[in-house]
């Protein structure tokens, strides 16, 4: 089945060119955001891989009210706008409530629907009506082919610029399992598929600052499996000092290690495309 090409700025998602969604999990201070963007710009040019810059102004699903959840809509969007102005990135951010869609769409090129909220009709419709690309994350509770239902809501609201992102299924307690079959099933819906690698290694129920809150040792093998399975893009949260990150400290990749991490993935993707054709 052919996959619809989705345009994000000057990036064509679904055209056999691997693309990357990357940036800090949540918007922190402006210096952290700019340092990450500067290195991502360098990696994009050196590796010839298009990058959509990602960061969240709000993480409304933190497991404890005392945990940092972001600077909020207004301050967060101002920082993202500076990233776009200074580095020319297209931008992606999460929205959690319908009234966030319009203001976020004024700054960002992609509005992301969190996995837990992927069936929320009002949120999907509000995102769709902005006319921006909508990235729907696969809920841990849905079979992959059932992602056709949130896709259908966005299309019914008049928007067919959609990306689907896999991040794993809940398996047992506090663990996520990535089933490579899901990439195939989601691709059959007809839209570009992204593999969110860094969220797939999170250990739920464990604070993200705890070293046990993520399993970075699985990042290489999971990323290779996803690229070999034919995903169109990869999602890797990055930070200049992951161990000091205010969210997902145990799972983000150091942005200064990203280039070496990408090398085998780009080579593997080229082989996958060759044999796909």
UniProtKB/TrEMBL annotation:
Belongs to the KdsA family. Residues 10-269 form the DAHP synthetase I/KDSA domain. NCBIfam families: KDO8P_synth (TIGR01362), PRK05198.1 (NF003543). It catalyses: D-arabinose 5-phosphate + phosphoenolpyruvate + H2O = 3-deoxy-alpha-D-manno-2-octulosonate-8-phosphate + phosphate. Its main location: cytoplasm. Pfam families: DAHP_synth_1. The keyword Acyltransferase does not apply. Keywords: Cytoplasm, Transferase. It is an enzyme of class 2 (transferase). This is 3-deoxy-8-phosphooctulonate synthase.
């Amino acid at each position: 089945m052919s996959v619809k090409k989705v345009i994000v700025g000057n990036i064509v998602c679904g055209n056999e060119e691997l693309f990357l969604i990357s940036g800090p999990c949540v918007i922190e201070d402006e210096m952290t955001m700019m340092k990450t963007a500067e290195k991502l710009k360098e990696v994009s040019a050196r590796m010839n891989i298009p990058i959509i810059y990602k960061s969240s102004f709000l993480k409304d699903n933190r497991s404890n009210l005392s945990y940092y959840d972001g600077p909020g809509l207004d301050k967060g969007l101002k920082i993202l706008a500076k990233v776009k102005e200074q580095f020319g990135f297209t931008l992606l951010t999460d929205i959690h409530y319908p009234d966030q869609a319009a203001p976020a769409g004024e700054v960002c090129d992609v509005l992301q629907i969190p996995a837990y909220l992927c069936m929320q009709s009002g949120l999907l419709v509000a995102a769709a009506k902005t006319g921006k690309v909508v990235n729907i994350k696969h809920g841990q509770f849905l079979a992959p082919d059932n992602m056709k239902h949130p896709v259908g809501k966005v299309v019914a609201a008049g928007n067919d610029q959609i990306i689907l992102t896999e991040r794993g299924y809940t398996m047992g307690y506090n663990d996520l399992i990535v089933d490579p079959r899901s990439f195939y099933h989601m691709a059959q819906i007809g839209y570009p598929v992204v593999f969110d690698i860094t969220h797939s290694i999170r250990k739920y129920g464990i604070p993200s600052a705890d070293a046990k809150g993520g399993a970075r040792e699985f990042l290489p093998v999971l990323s290779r499996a996803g690229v070999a399975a034919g995903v169109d893009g990869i999602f890797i949260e990055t930070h200049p000092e992951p161990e000091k990150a205010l969210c997902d400290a145990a799972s983000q990749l150091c942005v200064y290690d990203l280039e070496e991490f990408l090398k085998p993935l780009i080579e593997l993707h080229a082989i996958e495309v060759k044999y796909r054709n």
